[in-house]
Amino acid sequence: MRAWEIISGGGVDTLNLADRATPDPGPGQVRVRMNANSINYRDLTTIEDPISRKLPFPTVPNSDGAGVVTAAGAGVSLREGDRVTSCFFEDWTAGEISAAAMASALGGARQGVLAEEVILPERGVIATPDHLTDAEAATLPCAALTAWHALTLPRPITAGETVLLLGTGGVSVFAQQFCTMMGARTIVTSSSDAKLAKMVELGANRTINYRTNPDWDAAVLDLTGGVGVDRVVEVGGPGTFDRSVNAVRVGGIIGLIGILTGIAGQASPTAIMRKSLTIRGIYVGPRAMFADMNRAITAHGLRPVIDQSFAFDDAKDAYHTMRGAGHFGKLVINI
């Protein structure tokens, strides 16, 4: 079977398509024929900078995949033919995150799923919702679960509350879909009017083009009568964080997720303290939360937004498209 491998720090163009022996599952494991992967910004940055992450070579990239069980080891309840989706963390099944759970992330600490066949522990996969294709299911493990986490903890968003969504990447698009399901209002920022129009089609209530309106936090306050939003899904990082703090109401919540504006920067703690804000760092979520999300997705018939699909042999093109940042929603590699 074939697998893409990170073999150096040379970036996307040095990815290697290798022939490997088809693996056999051990006790508690399943072999999954991967039919689709989706890619995340995290996957791209891992490929671009594996050395600082101390990845061993070769490492198979990607955390998000869906397919069919082709073999099961001893003590496994899954059977051949069962449709499953990978969990981002192999060892985070429920409860709060731990250092051990963080060390079980696919496509980084552990081998990823951009391969024709992969071995995963039974606890590291979850049943695929029946109404979704494998390509659609492959978009769920990281971006969807991150968005769900941001909207459900430390308490679930309630109908009528207002959520600020930054940008139109995978997490923000899923967050919009979930907010529409939950009856929450949204304000969405982007530099693209075309992408903002697509978010309106998904249920966004108000939009702000931050290119033409760089003081977008002030615009958010105007749209909320000076009060601020109830919650922010913050994917920008240092370049947007202080404005997000300004845009959220007293006692509000910020889910801190991304670093799209870079990793360096400073934040002023004064406003956080004075507004009694809850700031939560979010790193995807556990399998139990994934199951909760899938039940909601099934109940509402939600279908993920896929911008483009790529053939397995053209995986490099998918990462270059991710770097170009012109997509809306998710990018998928069919296997």
Structure description:
The protein has 335 residues and is an alpha/beta fold. The protein folds into two domains: 2-139 and 304-334, Medium-chain alcohol dehydrogenases, catalytic domain (Quinone Oxidoreductase, Chain A, domain 1, Alpha-Beta Complex); 145-281, NAD(P)-binding Rossmann-like Domain (Rossmann fold, 3-Layer(aba) Sandwich). 30% of the residues lie in helices and 25% in strands. The strands form three sheets. Strands 3, 4, 5, 6, 7, 14 and 15 form a seven-stranded mixed sheet that branches. A six-stranded parallel sheet has the order 10-9-8-11-12-13, sandwiched between helices. Strands 1-2 form a two-stranded antiparallel sheet. The radius of gyration is 20 Å and the shape is globular.
Quick structural gist:
The protein is of the alpha/beta class. Helix content is 30%, strand content 25%. Strands 3, 4, 5, 6, 7, 14 and 15 form a seven-stranded mixed sheet that branches. A six-stranded parallel sheet has the order 10-9-8-11-12-13, with helices on both faces.
Keyphrases for this structure?
seven-stranded mixed beta sheet; alpha/beta; Quinone Oxidoreductase, Chain A, domain 1; 11 helices; six-stranded parallel beta sheet; Rossmann fold; 335 residues; 2 domains
Terminal CA distance: 11 Å
Number of strand elements = 15
Task: Give the count of helical stretches.
Answer: 11
Overall pLDDT, averaged?
A: 96
Helix content: 25-40%
By CATH, the topology of the largest domain is: Quinone Oxidoreductase, Chain A, domain 1
Using only C-alpha atoms, the radius of gyration works out to 20 Å
CATH homology superfamily of the largest domain: Medium-chain alcohol dehydrogenases, catalytic domain
Instruction: Tally the structural domains.
Output: 2
Largest sheet: 7 strands, mixed
Shape designation = globular
User: What structural category arises from helix and sheet content?
Assistant: alpha/beta
